[in-house]
Design goal:
alpha+beta; 3 helices; 172 residues; 20% helix; FomD barrel-like fold; seven-stranded mixed barrel
Length: 172
Amino acid sequence: MENTNIENKTYTMKAYKYDGRLHYEQPLQLEGRFRDHLVLSGAGGRKLTHYTRDAVYTFRETSREFFFLDRWYTAALVYGGHGEVQYVYCNIAVPCRITDETVEFVDLDVDVIVRAGRIEVLDMDEFEENRSKYGYEESLVARVLQAVDEVKSDILERAYPFEDVVLNNSKP
């Protein structure tokens, strides 16, 4: 871990659309800063400002969120009231950019969710719509589809951060 003074450090997570517009943001607490990723946690009651929808959402659940410099997805483990993982939510995204106060990424529309033992791929229709709207290059389209396969494979293989130890670890 590179940053030893992590207690009470807040990061702002910022997601952008492909054209550079801020899509949504929320405050998250630093759990760990590593060479190739950040681990942040979201407290119950936190607010997510969604600029694209002109709305503010309040999350009741807590989460542990993983932001990678070298993977084309983010991962959020969302915890229930007894500390169990309720579901896993992954954004397909351009690898993150991390500063001392922010983690930023370009959200590429597609989401992968694991709930009740089932893997679901969501928002392919939104991806197709934005593919046309933003003029996604064929190489980007191929990379997004590859990322969907990678995250599904990582989940099935219990690769980090989806390993049993993490999924069964209750939220502190």
